[in-house]
């Protein structure tokens, strides 16, 4: 029960365990301003729990009962082998994505605007709600690679801002709607003064402790720096950057770390590049998961036939955020299937296989939720509002493993700061733990 504002009625009572879960989610988001940081944070937490890290370019010593984690760029896979695993042992996979929509630093990133402003050149990454990025303190975060091939994770802390035009200079904005040109109106400011001394890359190099001249390449995004927080009646709401999809990444990892022994090989996979279609060497359309599963199978002595039998008995639960019914736009949702915030995770269904859920997957999910004592609800689009897609159909197409798409209903998807009910990420993690126990 909240004491922050005792005059307000408590709309819902949030269990202490759910509060602890989202507090940890907030810490995970803060540690993960880029997909590279998110993959590293997953690996760091797994290693702290006793997992050992595997390098892709070395031979793997994978033994029964082993727990391991492997990072490829902004993607990460962690897995637990049961003591009794064999060549036909099935995989239970929970998948999510590590990237979020926003902006990425361009080449020649230091630019100079009128009025002495230092600016940075950025590209749009995926499909962000552009307006939500205005007037926020942003940081640069990602990786730089020096000429010797060494990769450095970097983050600057609050450094930039995309300033909105004053209403006095845009009198019709509240009547005509805000229209942002993706090039002209999205370039952040980050300083004032002598143009010669401005250097975005020098700020990144300073964070890495390297000479700016040593930078050979970089993958760097903008990230919102405002910490996540619970708020509202009963402190039942939770606002944070990058809930899409660090919410699922955190839930999947938490479930894997908590899962006890089971008959199947337990796998958590977090993929980069979902927001731009997943087609990359580390994305869900690439070979990363297939290669890791195959290397595990090989370590267990599986033949091609035995690996196919293991895949045929496997299950992939792909989790990503979905849409709670928005109270101001109820007509945008299906009239009968109306996910509510706080009502538990959603099972995502789409006739055109934008979600991979089928009858068998739906049944497996419903059993997992019932076993965990977690409520669940269904999401399907209004027919005139086509839904997005997820890693589910992409990895199902690649691997042939039965896949079910699930998630958590949120508001403001692809905003720089999204909104969930406090209980739903906790429900999702518990349901995933139950999936791992199958
Ligand atoms: Zn997503």
TrEMBL record:
Superkingdom: Bacteria
A Pfam family hit: Peptidase_M18
Sample GO molecular function, one term: aminopeptidase activity
Enzyme Commission numbers on file: 3.4.11.-
Keywords per UniProt: Aminopeptidase, Hydrolase, Metal-binding, Metalloprotease, Protease, Zinc
Obligatory cofactor(s): Zn(2+)
InterPro entries xrefs: Peptidase_M18, Peptidase_M18_dom2
Family membership: Belongs to the peptidase M18 family.
Protein name: M18 family aminopeptidase
Taxonomic path: Bacteria, Bacillati, Actinomycetota, Actinomycetes, Micrococcales
